[in-house]
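Hi W., the nickel (II) ion complex you wanted:
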Amino acid sequence: RMVNYVSNLNSDLSLIRHGSWMRVMKINNSLITVTPNTLTIEEFAELGVLYWRLNPDDYENDEELQKIREARGYNYMDLLDLCPEKVANYEEKLKNFYTEHIHGDEEIRYCLEGSGYFDVRDKDDQWIRIWIKAGDLIILPAGIYHRFTLDTSNYVKLMRLFVGEPVWTAYNRPQENHPARKEYIKGLTGKLGVPLEAH
Ligand SMILES: CSCCC(=O)C(=O)O
Ligand SMILES: [Fe+2]
Ligand code: NI
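Structure:
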């Protein structure tokens, strides 16, 4: 199964479409009000965010994951067990994860246990919150503004994938002149066929 996107929100913020799903919501910047909103498949795909629903139980022998890794050249892999006992400078790392940033490369995360929120900016610069749970593989394109935070489960175990030697450098917003940002915007504009300002 390839990429599928939620086009709408129901009460529990999930929707089944083509046998796969993502839990998404729009939030306002204060994070106090959660605003359920309609998000079409097209709108989400235009952001360049990819998503797969996999079986996390036997991830070491998962052929579907293997196929994705081979197709996209993800030869690097490690596991991030996000808990204070296992992560040095835990609080500081969480703070950095939740600071809006971009990378020069894709950010590939596969949730094996626990859960958390990836927030990405949509084409109108509004946050879209993606609720990641075990089995969710998400790929954020280089240059997209994003951030991550734990939810009330307070725990997540993530597989990190990368092409070649990993680079985790985060460039905090604003980064309008960063090459990856420029490329990303160019791709967005190209896909939309109209300047972003037109929205
Ligand atoms: C906990 S992984 C997600 C946080 C992030 O955006 C990053 O690592 O760059
Ligand atoms: Fe990141
Ligand atoms: Ni628009």
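Residues 1-21, 30-36, 194-199 have pLDDT under 50 and may be disordered.

W.
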